[in-house]
Amino acid sequence: MTRRPECWPELAELISALCEQTITDEQFARLNELLESDPAARCYYAVYMDMHVGLARRWGADNPAGVPPGARSPIKAALRQPLIWATAAAAILAIVGVSLWLARIGFPGTADNRPMVSASASSPPPESEVTTSSVAILRLAADAVWADSSAAPAVGSPLAPGWLRLKSGSVVVQFFNGATVILDGPAELQILSADQAFCRSGRVSAEVPLQAAGFRISTPQVAVVDLGTAFGLDVKPDRAEVHVLQGEVAIQELPTAVPNLKEGEAIAVAHDGRIERMPAQRWTFLSARELERQAAASCRQQYEAWRAAAPKLNTAAGLLVRFDFEKDSTSGQRLLNVASQASVAYGTVVGCGQAEGRWPAKGALEFRTLSDRLRVRLPGPYASITLAAWVRVDALDRAFTSLFMCEGYSPGGFHWQIGRKGDLRLGVKGENQKATDYCSPVVFGPDQIGQWVHLAVVYDADARRVTHFVDAQPVSRTPLRFDVPLRIGNADIGNWNVGPHSSIYPVRCFTGRMDELALYGRALTDHDIRELYELGMPKPASSR
Asked: Which end of the chain is less packed: N or C, by CB atoms within 10 Å?
């Protein structure tokens, strides 16, 4: 008789949900874990999927779950009866072994985190391609204060059509067609498309290369079409001024035709259409180069403020590890643990290279290859933990992307990682092969790739929940599913050493940069996470 796996009751429910097409993503992940960890589970999975296909064929393709009208699920009933299919199980187990091997090498159809089922069984339709509506990017900012601080864009973030309302300071917006627009606050600019914008008020200037000729900015009084040059606009409630700083522009949307304006020329258009000619006033408009100098000075001030906060960060209660990734904290392949009460003095860098962090002067560690990682070893156990890191994710090109992974997956071990879809996950291994993933909604999409973001996860044994944070905002809270003391031992940051544990997803390396990581042997509060974020938040955040 085929040995019934120890995880049988849970496995039965998961297979039943799979066959009835009610299984959730979290259940899919759990089913994968059971199949990976127990050969008997794989055997029973194969046997019952074969039975499911047979039932589907018997009762027709219009009923893919194989359930006759008015009857309860035969697979659910059958799963609770002992079956003696030793020969069939052995044969199908061999097929499953081949399937798992194909999944390991990336055979088409097995690359996601769902179990491979018979081609005859029904499966969900393929997911649509993730897209973006962005048409521009916020390239630079200096002392920018936005009208809506809660929706303030970070430097480097893509911009979809919509309003930019700047109260003070200056920013540079680069459109996807190559045109560059500088806003000098207060100013209101509505992005319309990759080659068109509307300025309601304020002072803006545009630098338009030949590749972007035809770029257009309209105002309540007049519209300007650039012919591959540079111009400035000063828009007030009663009039709008157009200044040609270089080259030539076309003037539109006036009651009477106006000849093109050339370099050094300017006009003022009143709300009633009256036109006043004047010389261009180049000195009243910021250039991108001037704004770069202002932004660099602002970055230096922010970086020095973060360094001044280091004593407070390093002496926080319960802090086990803090890697700041500063250049002076690296000696050879050793990275200094700057936590004041650290029981472990350093981590070992394997393959990673030094890179620029959140600010130009800030150090970071860059992960690019399958071997890159930071190795640590920590004692335990811990009832609660908090992990927090500043990261720049450059790609999500595999099923799981590692942030902090305990070696192997022994009881009490945990895995902090990002799923292919862009969700955050904390996987925790319990006793008797029991494991679970605490997942967030999708937080990484195409527009977040390449952006610096602060991530944190809190495993709180007292409150009995796991909370994921993005830029200090809680994005999910999930009740604990079982109690287990957390153990770390050997662990990888940015990668995974599978160790004695086998997995069909052994490659989970991180692609991107990390420039601060902290691990606490206690549960930080929401207020603690907010304070941690604000002490290290670039204002405005840098995308470099």
From this structure: N
